[in-house]
Structures are given as structure tokens and as C-alpha cells.
Amino acid sequence: MTEELSPSQAASRIGATTRSVQRWIATGRLPARRVGGRWRVASDALDAFASPRLADDGGPSAIERLFIANRGEIAARIRRTCDRLGIEAIVPSTDGPDALDLLDVGAVVAAAVAARADAVHPGFGFLAENAGFAEAVEAAGMRWVGPPPAAIRAMGDKAAARRLARRLGIPTIDGYDGDNQTDAALTRAARRIGFPILVKPAAGGGGKGMRTVHSARELGDAFASARREALAAFADERLIIERLLEGPRHVEVQLLFDGQGHGVHLGERDCSIQRRHQKVLEETPSPGVGPATRKRLTASALAIGREVGYVSAGTCEFLLDDDGDVFFLEMNTRLQVEHPVTELVTGRDLVADQLRIAAGEPLGFEQRDVSSKGHAIEVRLYAEDAEAGFLPATGPVLAIEWPTGDGIRLDAGVVVGDSVTGRFDPMLAKIVAHGADRREALGRLTAALDETIVLGLTTNLRFLHWLVRQPAVVRGAARIDTLDAIWPPGARPVAAIPDQAWAEAARLLGVGGWRLNAAPVVRLVADAADEPEERSVAVPDAPGEPSLAAVRDGATVHVDVDGRSIAFRLAPPPDVDRAARVAAAHAHGGGSAEVIAPMPGSVLAIHVALGETVAAGDPVATLEAMKMEHVVAASAAGRVTEIEVAVGDQVVRGQALATVEG
Questions:
Q1: Whether pLDDT at 260 is above 60
Q2: Which stretch of DSSP H or E encloses residue 661?
Q3: Of 163, 173, 328, 186, which is closest to residue 244 (Cα–Cα)?
Q4: Helices (H), 391-488
Q5: Which residues are within 8 A (CB) of 43 and not within 5 positions of it... i.e. 6 or more apart?
Q6: I want to staple 444 with a disulfide (CB 3.0 to 4.6 A). Which of 90, 401, 429, 433 is the partner?
Q7: Beta-bridge mates of residue 325
Q8: Residue 205's closest CA among 266, 249, 158?
Q9: What is the dihedral of CA 572, 576, 579, 584, to 10 degrees?
């Protein structure tokens, strides 16, 4: 006789946990119906479901506690799926005295074992594409939520991946991926290929370590800096060289394979809008890909996945030129940052798919079952200053307003009270919009960005406001070099600080100097994008309703100006000595010039010595923040009279690094 069982009764009947039963119901694998607002499972359906599961060691009960070896928005996003499926998610602390080093394989595996996890999800970045980490997780008796270590190794070596693609008849860009890594061999290859070229790490991706080289005289510095960054990020300093294509699209194909060899693609994504070889805006489907090209792209991606025995979610990346040629770039053996756009148009949860596959389940659907509805576009909100060359920014998160509305998805990794440091990737959140077509999706995204406010640190939000309104973006015509061509717009990309912002800062900072029959006045300084700006401002008579979003933090007020958090403080009293030095410099046509750190970070190298003569533009120091290098150059010719930092020092934005006497 059939009985109607509650989830807890069903769990007791088959020897599982209540959370597992709830997960199977939520994902549709266990038939159930609602009775009076509660789930009920028919006993005969439960018995039919349980029989193969109990006979199969890798069945759906395999993952109960998931250790997320990551942080920020991707950890929050994975946890969201776990909560829906009834899986307990464990996210380690990465700040404070008990912080876990997410790059230490032994420490991460030990933490997962100590947490009694039965599976580990690496997210993206850190150890996500580290085959040794995958092996260590499996050796410790836990499930690895990702591809087999052999597949990670095969595709993680970009040089070997290029050779594999060519063996399958898939075109690659003319380049060099040989074993001889001497400067002489690389230089010969560069001359054969012809300039401009792209120098890339052979063992990594994400834009790290990539250098564009336009002439032979730039090669030495490019090789040295690319190797240094590759070694720091990937523990492998091997390089490959590729001919730099002019104006291609960057398009990638999302793959999903199970452990039984079944694989599907979930369409393509266009990731052409980039800065410093890192993506800023992604969308699906690509506005530049037609049915014939889509068929070539997806067939090539599936062939590569099958060749390496791929399992789980992965992405093959390609470049498309205006002649219709398609070139394989690399395969990312992990979940991509931009996976939400694919989820929105296909209706799938890729993290849930990864977890099912890691538990040993079959894919459960075929290519003909995959459908795409509408269009989705995503932008990445970074802690960086787009108006100062996209340099990383740090600071506290003092206030946030996230967008809502139809078709809007937010994947955020920060909350009010967090402090953004230079230790990690600068991505704070992803704002994603879905619509019936591209026009509706872009309109929703534009409105969502206008609703977003982040105060306390500099972000690229004002830049994103500008970006989504640009004709090339609106038309869907952007290429990988479009952003370089249109940003910054004109000689001065920085918008003037409006009077309302000054007034709101003056109101929040308090009463200024008394004046007869007039409003009190304060002297304020604002941290504008290029250099501090000072102004005397009358303090408003009455508080009234603030016209701009603002928050006070001690002696500083942060005001939202079209998406940029501008910091205002009371101006310090005049510095007589500094004024005298400036006057002397003007009088004698020379004087000293400080070389200033344009961003917070660590001093990686000092390129000058005391007494050395430098020309304007000569490198003085190299800073590193968020695993990216930045060379700081002399602004004027002269002699180095002071070096105020040493290699390994931590510096803040605006700190003097050296002094050059004119």
C-alpha cells in the first residue's frame, strides 16, 4: 500500500538525511507533491528512486558538505545553490588572524578535511586550475567539483593546448609554443611572426602576465615582466607568443560533460570588451555570430573537450576576425566569471550541474534539449579607477544600494563594513540583465547601473555608466580593441564635481567660519580622479533632503557623483614651505618632482639609483597589487636625489616613491 511520507520520514526509510531528500525534491529528481503547503513523497516512488541509488556508490547522496575553496562573490554564489539543494556549504575565513591561504594546497585540503567536507568546489582563480590541488583533494577522500587532473594539465598548458587543437584540425593564431624558452629563441620567433605580437604565460589565463609588443626593442622588458608575473601567479615562467590580431571578437563556448563521456554546449558568449586583457562586459548570444559560425565554434569546442576526457563545466575561447576566420585560444578548466549570462538564457544552474556531475550522476539531457531564450548582458563592478588607467583601488565599503527589477540578477561579494585590500582580485560584484532581446537586456542593465551606489572606495561604476551608452556597445559592434580606441573620451574624461556634491559635503562636515549676515564657509578638499581639488563652500542653512547619496566616515564625507565615490575633507592650513618650493621651481625653471604611487600596492622593483640621471618616461619603480604589475615612470627629466621606498614595502596611493631634481 502506498504511503504519503514527509521528507524526514522518507529519509529515515532509505537511510539518508532529511536535507538530501529535500535537495532531491528541489531538483526534481525525486517526485513529490504539496499537501497543505508541505511536501509529501509517495513510498513506492521513493523505493523506486532509492534502489539504484543504494546500489550505486556514486549516487545522489554523495555530496552533503561542500568546502568552497574561494572567497567573495563566487563563494556567495556557490553557497546560494547549496542552500537551495540542501547541501551544507563551508566557506573558510580569508581575513584576520585565522585566515586561510587559498593558494596553499596543503592548508586548503587540511581545512576541508577538518571541516568534514565530502567535496571541494574551487570556484575560479586561486587553485581552480591546479591539477595538483585536484589530486590532493581526491587523495584525501573528497570529491573534486571540476575536471579530472589530467584534463586540467592538458589544457592548462596553453602551448600544449595549441598543439592539440592543430592536431584536431582547429586553427590557431600564428605563433610560437616551443620548448626553447631562451630570450634568443623567443626573439627569433617574434621576428618571424612579425610585430605587433602578444607575449603570454604558457601556464595561465585571466589576462595575467600578457604583454603587447610593437617592436623588437620592447622584447627584453616584456619577457622579463611577463615571466615575473607568470611565476607569481602560476608558478611557471614559460611563455608563448602569438601574432596580435587587429580588431577581432573574443567569443567563448560553454561546455558541460559528465563522467560517462556525454557532453553538450550551452551556446557562446561574447567577451570582446576588455581592459588590460581582462573582461569588463560579457553577453550571450554574441551579436557577431551567425548560425554557420556558431556551428563551427561549438563543434570545435566539443571536439577539444572529448579529446581530453573532459568532465564538469569548462569553456573554450576563440578569436573571430572580420573575414569569418575562427582561431582557438585556450580552454578554461573551471567555472567562468561570466557564467550567469548563460544561466539566464538557458535556465540552467551550472553550479548545480557541476555538483550533480561530481556526485557521479549522468548529464541527464542531450544537446537537443538545450534551448536559449532571450539575451543576457553582464558587467563587472571592480574596485579600480578607470579614470586613472584602471589602477586598483582599496578602501572601506561604507554604503551600498544594489539594483532590483525585472530581469536583473546580482552576484555580489561585498557588504557594508567590508574593507577592500590589495590582497585579492578587485571584482566586487557582477550586475546582469536578461531581456526578451538584446535591446531590452541592455536597457535593463543601463537602468540597473543608474540605481547602483557604492560609497567609501573608488569603483569603475561611473565608467560602466558611460560604457553601456556608447554607440559601439549599443550596436553590438565592439571588438577587443574597441575600449582602447574610445577610452578615455577626449583629453579630460573626468567630470566636474557638481555644486550639490560640495554643498552636501559641507553640510555633513559641520559648521565653518562665521561671517556677518552670511552663511558659514568651510574650505574643502576633494579627492578628484586626477589631483585634489580645493574650494570654499558655504554651509547650507538647513539640512533638507540630500540631493546626492552621501555618507560620513570620521573626518571624511563620501558623495556619489554619477557612480564615483568622491571623498571630501576639511582642507589643511596652507603649507608655507611647500608654497615656497613651488615658487622657487617656477622662478628657476626647474625644482624637484616627486614620483608618486598612483595606486596602493607592494614595491616589486626599483629601477633607478641615487644620483642617476633619468629622462621623462623612464621607469622608476614597479608596483604590484591584486596580482597585476604597474610601472611608475618619471614625469620629468632630472637626477634622482631621493629614493623613499625599498623592494617589499607596502605603499598607499599618493605616497612619494622617489624625488627627481630638475
A1: yes
A2: strand 656-661
A3: 173
A4: 438-451, 461-467, 471-475, 482-486
A5: 2, 3, 4, 5, 13
A6: 433
A7: none
A8: 158
A9: -160
Residue among 126, 101, 125 at smallest CA distance from 111: 101
Residues 6+ apart with CB under 8 A from 505: 524, 526, 537, 550, 557, 559, 568
- What's the one-letter identity of residue 660? V
442 φ/ψ angles, rounded to the nearest 5 degrees: -70, -40
Q: Can you list the alpha helix ranges (DSSP code H) found in 322-424?
A: 339-346, 350-358
Cell of 582: 613651488
pLDDT in tens, 83-123: 999 999 999 998 888 899 999 999 999 999 999 999 999 99
Task: Please indicate, yes or no, whether the overall pTM of this predicted structure exceeds 0.85.
Answer: no
pLDDT in tens, 401-448: 999 999 999 999 999 999 998 777 789 999 999 999 999 999 999 999
Q: Strand, helix or coil at 637?
A: coil
With beta carbons less than 8 A apart as the criterion, state whether 350 and 293 touch.
Answer: no
400 neighbors 414 (Cβ within 8 angstroms) = yes
Half-sphere exposure of 372 (CA within 13 A, CB side): 18
Q: What is the mean pLDDT of the chain?
A: 89
SS3 475: helix
Each residue of 474-519: pLDDT tens digit? 999 999 999 999 998 875 545 689 999 999 999 998 765 555 555 6
Q: Which residue has the cell 529515515?
A: 12
Checking if the pLDDT of 466 tops 60, the result is: yes
What distance, in Å, lies between the first and last C-alpha atoms of the chain?
Answer: 96
Q: How many CB atoms lie within 10 A of CB 646?
A: 8
What's the pLDDT at 578? 52
Work out the number of other CB atoms within 10 angstroms of the CB of residue 418.
Answer: 17
Q: Provide the grid cell at 517.
A: 549676515
